[in-house]
What we know:
Blueprint: E1 2-7, H1 14-31, E2 36-41, E3 46-48, E4 57-59, E5 72-75, H2 87-98, E6 102-105, H3 109-115, E7 123-124, H4 131-137, E8 142-143, E9 149-151, E10 155-158, H5 163-176, H6 178-187, H7 215-223, H8 231-238, H9 242-252, H10 257-275, H11 280-286, H12 292-303, H13 307-314
Parallel strand pairs: 1-2, 1-5, 5-6, 6-10, 7-8
Antiparallel strand pairs: 3-4, 9-10
Helix pairs in contact: 1-5, 1-6, 5-6, 10-11, 10-12, 10-13
Amino acid sequence: MRTVAVLALDGVVGFELAIPGQVFGTANTVAETPVYDVRVCAPRGGVETDPVFGRTELRTGWGLDALASADVIVVPGNTRFLEEPPPEVTEALRRAVTAGAVVASVCVGAFVVAATGALDGLRATTHWQYADELASRHPRVEVDPSVLYVDNGRILTSAGVASGLDLCLHLVRRELGAEIAAGTARRTVMPLERSGGQAQFIEHPVPAAPTPSLRHTLEWMASNLQHPLTLEDIADRAALSVRSLNRHFRSQVGTTPMRWLLRARVNRARQLLESTDQPIDRVAAEAGFGSTATFRHHFTRLTGVPPGAYRDTFARGGQE
């Protein structure tokens, strides 16, 4: 059984504190055998949650010493994130990272993780509103405010509140596979997958000049997935230079044109695998992959399972 420690500091956001228990606890019921032991850990055995969303005094049987034996540590955001974490918190997290624990932050919990040095040299995200502050305080961290979460292997970060659900579901998928993750998503009534590269909903200032909308370009791409589209083809369709196309894609969609196209093709392949009995090579062609080998590679990389295994899991009408 894997131990999940949820680090609760004073001013913790109550909803973020509850996310790991909800997702990992639900994964236990889907797996039909306990896989995760979720423990809320707090300095001195107790904290108060963020008063803005309703103050609650929380008592728990686990303190900071419980981090040492945790397999996964989730760090929710708290209202004191602009203050330096207590030294005992920072040291406990450092020891856990050295011992090999997976550490994942939710929202501004990234500030606590960054204070340990564990994010130095890595790409990370946090709530878009505080991304500049995180980058200013920790210049060795590559802060990307445009994505929902970033997976660096043993260190993961996520954006605003709801992306904590995406991150925990991603961990379930990574550790237990697509079938358990899908069941967990259905039982918690959340999307099966919002990828880490999906954009945050960021409030941008009104631009000085009108910004070309990519809506029609995206619709055209989605209806032409089976064709061998190039970056130049897409730029021509959008009536933009390749450089401008990339810039507008990053600002409006949160990724590059070719990455969006790849994920759209994988999603199309998913639909075909679930709803048809077409052979794998035919699915690959209809989804726009140049070869079956290329299709298998990208599909497995993005979903965590090969196409055949995905069909075995979902083509039986596995909705609960």
